[in-house]
Amino acid sequence: MNSSTSNSHAVQRIVITGGTGYIGYALLHKIRELFMDSLSPVAIVRASSDITRLQRLLDYPSEHDPVIICDLQDVESLVRGVKDADIVVHLAAEMDFFPKNKENLLSVNVDGTRNLLEACACEAESSKRNIRFVYVSSTEAIGTTDGVSKADESHALNPDSYYGYTKVLAESVVEEYRQRLDTVIVRPTGVFGPDERFFFLELMQMVAKGFTVVLPSPMTGRTCLTHIDDIVNGILACATHPKAPGNTYNLCTDEAVSGKALVQTVADVLQCPRPIFSLPPSVGGVLIRLVAPIMNMGKRRVFMYHPKTVSDSMAYREYSNAKIRRELGFKPKYTMLEGVEETCKYELEVGTIKRSTIPPAIKRCIDLAAVVLFAISQTMGRRHRHAD
């Protein structure tokens, strides 16, 4: 296909899957706020989705219904959803790092992507127009890095989660359609920002409750997390820049930071105690395993309270954004820690998170417990070394 979308209309129709998700809604909001003179947004959603907020956001004069009910397993419904589309951004995915139902992840993330690609290809061929297809993958497809250099787009794909594995498979499906569509693959890192309600909210809650006074591991591994504003800007660049089609881009902040530095920054903004010491990962993993059934009760997805998250805190996830900077002019608005500070202040302002209100007596008990745990961990470590 040609390297740019072609349409006689001045305003291009951009169809976005996953519009009720955190990134999808933020992307639609940005388009609605700043790009209505050039982009006409449409959201494809599941029948089970709560679309109340989307309908309010997309309440504008249009020839098309701005919210369309589709099923990623039903190609016919998807053909209706992408009719007259110039750009399709595929965000919808099942994100679960510890899935109980792996078949569901495969069905949604791989088969669903193939079905949407086929629907777009059929629309492009029947209308004799180019359609740009932006597949939002993840740096989870790359997996961990060596701790020395940042992984660029040529890095081998070695996912260490099943979620990442499904992203690798889906990317290979996208590659199959390069001759029929103007495809772009973009790999964002983990995302955080105001109103995020998964990983980062849980981290702030842990810090606010004093749970991170003792870290479950030294958390020396550096990782990239990217602010939602930068994720949205990067995806928009992939959707509109003429050089994007046919390429794959990492989408991330400039520099990774250690998990410990991340926790310390959150603690400082929330005016909570900083970590006093850290446990050996083997000990921390055991403790997390013990408390996980209680802390994860009622949660649909598990992340923070899982032994693998403890071991992963020692791994490196450092990625290069040099290509998207060079070719598409992307420039992050936030460093990782600047974004963390801004997000914490926002959540304090809206009342989602409270500054530390732990009474002094309780704080002293926490400190004492930390010292005891430290002594136990040191004893266990010495015994382990003697056993070796």
Automatic annotation (TrEMBL):
Domain NAD-dependent epimerase/dehydratase, which positions?
Answer: 14-252
Name by which UniProt lists this protein: UDP-glucose 4-epimerase
Name its species.
Answer: Gracilariopsis chorda
